[in-house]
């Protein structure tokens, strides 16, 4: 959505491996003939900013609604804070530790942001005392609405309304906050604001579970993601791992004859002197980039930190690249590769037929990322 923001890798979750806050086991939901969620196994840990990703209709909202006990699974189990919510007593206790916006929060248009939050606090059975009043102001500050707290809700921008919703979900100091498409409908500035707020919540120790179909945006705020398609889990893992698995180094050569030599050296080294290399292949340059004679670049599948080492490796074999460029992975590509939608990207060069052949070279991103997936295809 906001393509102007440079891609940044979300910091790896410092608490990965911590307490499991939410686990789903074989979770399924059937609506007549529609399987909205199929045998889903999620694993959200304390400190995660966990992204539930997938296109429209992939089962994100259905999963979140089941987690919140708003609808019941057809099969499978949900554990919150270590116990199953099929136990009604535990469900009640667990839900008190969760703040959520899944349905559009209903605020009174003519009441101010502060008055609306006080109403939410009353509804949540928080005492109407000075402490609650202080908490309301604290939350308004946290979501950046303190200067506009006295304005009527109807005068708020969409981004401000969304932040008030998040504020409402935060009032009772939840251990887990669940946000369904928190940036839906926001302009790029609104997206940045909400993303910054989510980052702040995470730094404050709140575990966040959010859903989104905007992969680029999620990449910048989430530590872990699960990718859904038509109710099935395609992959689950650390964002940094998934991104590293689709990043690499691109090499251009002025003499096309160098292409197979370079790719051959890289593939050979992958199994021996450069164990950090996952493989190599050919790719067409992206639009606007330098097109070398012969029309192709060599891609070394490795962490971008090895760019200089790749250069040195080739130089040791008397091969000198005219261009060495880091190639950052992104979740969009990762998703397209996983869902087999790569064919939707513009068809590469007519020079395809002239592409040099290297046995074993990984030609696709899908090939490059295979093996980096924690949760397999369901
Ligand atoms: N109450 C319902 N009755 C019948 N089918 C439903 C119901 N709720 C959801 N579905 C179906 O279940 C599937 C998953 O829907 P869901 O809303 O969970 O997807 P989503 O990933 O949240 O999509 P979006 O990105 O559009 O919000 C869809 O095919 C949807 O039509
Ligand atoms: Mg939805």
Summarize the structure in words.
- The structure is a single chain.
- The chain is of the alpha/beta class and 378 residues long.
- Helix 3 packs across helix 4 (130-142).
- The strands form 3 sheets. The protein has a 6-stranded mixed sheet with strand order 7-8-9-4-10-11, with helices on both faces. Strands 1, 2, 3, 5 and 6 form a 5-stranded antiparallel sheet that branches. A 4-stranded antiparallel sheet has the order 13-14-12-15, covered by helices on one side.
- Residues 1-16 and 342-378 have low confidence and may be disordered.
- It contains 12 helices and 15 strands.
- The protein folds into 2 domains: 20-242, Rossmann fold; 246-369, 2-Layer Sandwich (Alpha-Beta Plaits), CATH 3.30.70.
- Helix content is 31%, strand content 22%.
Write the layout of secondary structure elements.
Blueprint: E1 20-31, E2 34-40, E3 43-45, E4 49-53, H1 60-67, E5 75-80, E6 83-84, H2 88-95, E7 98-101, H3 113-123, H4 130-142, H5 158-170, E8 176-180, H6 188-203, E9 207-212, H7 215-219, E10 224-229, E11 232-238, H8 239-245, E12 248-252, H9 258-270, E13 279-283, E14 297-301, H10 307-316, E15 323-327, H11 331-338, H12 365-369
Parallel strand pairs: 4-9, 4-10, 7-8, 8-9
Antiparallel strand pairs: 1-2, 1-3, 1-5, 5-6, 10-11, 12-14, 12-15, 13-14
The structure holds adenosine-5'-triphosphate (ATP) and magnesium ion.
């Amino acid at each position: 959505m906001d393509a102007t923001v440079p891609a940044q890798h979300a910091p790896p979750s410092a608490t990965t491996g911590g307490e499991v806050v939410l686990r789903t086991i074989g979770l399924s939901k059937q609506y007549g003939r529609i399987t909205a969620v199929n045998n889903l196994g999620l694993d959200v840990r304390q400190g995660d900013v966990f992204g539930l990703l997938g296109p429209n209709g992939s089962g994100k909202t259905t999963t979140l609604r089941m987690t919140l006990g708003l609808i019941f699974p057809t099969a499978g189990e949900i554990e919150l804070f270590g116990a199953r919510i099929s136990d009604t007593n535990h469900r009640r206790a667990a839900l008190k530790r969760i703040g959520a916006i899944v349905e559009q929060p209903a605020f009174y248009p003519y009441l101010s942001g502060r008055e609306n939050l006080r109403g939410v606090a009353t509804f949540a059975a928080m005492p109407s005392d000075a402490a609650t009043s202080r908490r309301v102001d604290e939350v308004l500050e946290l979501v950046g609405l303190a200067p506009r707290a006295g304005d009527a809700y109807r005068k708020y921008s969409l981004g401000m309304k969304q932040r008030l919703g998040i504020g409402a979900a935060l009032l009772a100091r939840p251990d887990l906050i669940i946000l369904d498409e928190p940036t839906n409908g926001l302009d790029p500035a609104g997206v940045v604001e909400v993303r910054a707020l989510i980052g702040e919540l995470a730094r404050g120790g709140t575990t966040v579970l959010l859903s989104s179909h905007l992969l680029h945006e999620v990449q910048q705020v989430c530590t872990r993601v699960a990718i859904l398609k038509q109710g099935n889990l395609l992959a689950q893992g650390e964002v940094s791992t998934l991104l590293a698995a689709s990043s690499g180094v691109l090499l251009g050569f002025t003499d096309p004859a160098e292409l197979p030599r370079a790719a051959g050296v890289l593939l050979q080294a992958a199994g021996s002197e450069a164990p950090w290399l996952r493989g190599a292949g050919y790719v067409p340059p992206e639009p606007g980039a330098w097109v070398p004679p012969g029309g192709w670049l060599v891609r070394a599948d490795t962490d971008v930190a090895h760019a200089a080492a790749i250069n040195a490796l080739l130089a040791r074999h008397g091969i000198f690249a005219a261009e060495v460029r880091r190639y950052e992975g992104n979740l969009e590509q990762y998703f397209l590769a996983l869902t087999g939608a790569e064919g939707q990207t513009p068809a590469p060069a007519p020079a395809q037929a002239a592409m040099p052949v290297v046995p074993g070279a990984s030609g696709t991103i899908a090939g490059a990322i295979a093996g980096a997936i924690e949760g397999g295809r369901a």
